[in-house]
Amino acid sequence: MTELCWSEGKKTVINPERGWYVQVDTKDEDSIREYYDSEEQFRIVLLALDLSGEENQPEISEEKLGELAESLEECKKIGMAAVVRAAYSFSGENYQEPASFDYVLNHVQQLSKVLNSYKGVVIAVQAGFIGPYGEWHSSCYMETAPDGVPYRVTLISKLLETLDESIAINVRRPMFIREAAFYRLETDRLGLHNDALLSTKDDMGTYTEEGYERAAELSWAEREVKTVINGGETTNISEYTKIDNAVEEFRKLKLTYLNRYYNMEVWRQWKNESFQGWNGADYIREHLGYRLHLSSVKLPEYWRKGRNFTLRLRVENTGFSWPKRKYHPYIAVKLDKNIYYFPIKAYNKKNTMLVMEAEITGEELYEKLPETIELGMCLSREHEIELANDELKFSDGNTWFAAYHYEEKSGRYILER
């Protein structure tokens, strides 16, 4: 056996369910494709569902439900992942409290039916609903209900109950996850959307719980937040936006999505900084969510026609988080113009590594093999995932890493150097 090794490249990798995002009103579904096709190649959109006018209704109108469904359908058509937030106002000026919290719970029930029908598109729902912008402030529903349970805990409970278990639920502050655990709610699906990332000492009220100052909260989130889908936006330049600190905090928060346009001053600051040989802005963009590269393959120096042989592979993740899905990887074997796929059966996660093993069975290939055989890796046949290897070719959804050439004298296929 011989080992081939590679390091992470600096190529731009546009993979699904990760990266910077743009916020789009659900009324503006036509812009979703424009953002997908734009130079910035968005693969996540935050759909803002404005429920103003519905706050005094026990049920959301069919028109508004249809508006959400149409936006999600557009996302599905083009392969755009969606984070969804519903609020009774996306303006601080015309916000009106819902007449009854029972109405809010009814609305959650209705919206969940729509969202669940697009569970392959919706990667997270921001808890929303309470307060202006759905940001959980300036509302009587941030208080404790007459039954002694905070309204927000009841809202989280309803979201957990009604949303498909594949959909993450993001809340505004870490303390809300701890609070949910105190009331015995399941918290594995609860993550964070911090809409004041790196802004002030406490991120504008994000880290204010007694005993949980900034450093303690970040360490807690690193240990305790289980979902890999977390996100947010920046608001201003501060001592915390320096690239070294930003990378450290984003890694602890398992940050998968970040607003591209808010705040542009912060993005410009990163563009003028460097990190580990990268442009700072490029590093942040490329490491949101997962960033996978093939780091090593152990394979035989030669093999004979009809014989089986085993490959051992290591894929490293340098991203801030991990893929939402557990993909089903394959070894691709290219014979002339045909590609055959062999499932990778052993698949273990060790820290930042995925350790894999696959067996290539010769009898399944051509009886008459061509002079050259190429080997590649396909991380998923359902979703095209590109590995961040500058030195390796990516085509047909596969990353090609080795080739064998037939040596007539020995009757063997020899690994090309």
What does this 3D model show about the protein?
With 417 residues, this protein is α/β, with parallel strands linked by helices. Helix content is 24%, strand content 30%. It is built from 9 helices and 22 strands. The chain has helices at 30-37, 62-78, 101-116, 151-162, 174-182, 214-224, 243-252, 264-271, 280-287; strands at residues 2-5, 19-25, 44-50, 81-87, 122-126, 168-171, 190-197, 230-234, 255-259, 274-275, 278-279, 292-299, 302-304, 309-317, 330-335, 338-343, 346-350, 353-360, 372-378, 393-395, 398-407, 412-415. It has an 8-stranded parallel barrel, surrounded by 6 helices. Strands 13, 15, 16, 19, 20, 21 and 22 form a 7-stranded antiparallel β-sheet that branches. Helix 3 packs parallel to helix 4 (151-162).
* Beta-strand residue fraction: 25-35%
Which spans of ≥5 residues are poorly predicted at pLDDT below 50? none
Mean pLDDT: 95
**C-alpha Rg (nearest Å):** 24 Å
Q: Kindly, what is the distance between the CA atoms of the first and last residues, rounded to a whole number of angstroms?
A: 14 Å
Order the strands across the largest sheet as they lie in space. 2-3-4-5-6-7-8-9
Helical content class: 10-25%
Count of individual beta strands: 22
Largest beta-sheet characterization: 8 strands, parallel, barrel
Shape: elongated
Structural class: alpha/beta
What count of helical segments does DSSP give?
A: 9
SSE diagram, text form:
Elements: E1 2-5, E2 19-25, H1 30-37, E3 44-50, H2 62-78, E4 81-87, H3 101-116, E5 122-126, H4 151-162, E6 168-171, H5 174-182, E7 190-197, H6 214-224, E8 230-234, H7 243-252, E9 255-259, H8 264-271, E10 274-275, E11 278-279, H9 280-287, E12 292-299, E13 302-304, E14 309-317, E15 330-335, E16 338-343, E17 346-350, E18 353-360, E19 372-378, E20 393-395, E21 398-407, E22 412-415
Parallel strand pairs: 2-3, 2-9, 3-4, 4-5, 5-6, 6-7, 7-8, 8-9
Antiparallel strand pairs: 1-12, 10-11, 12-14, 13-22, 14-18, 15-16, 15-19, 17-18, 19-21, 20-21, 21-22
Helix pairs in contact: 1-2, 2-3, 3-4, 8-9
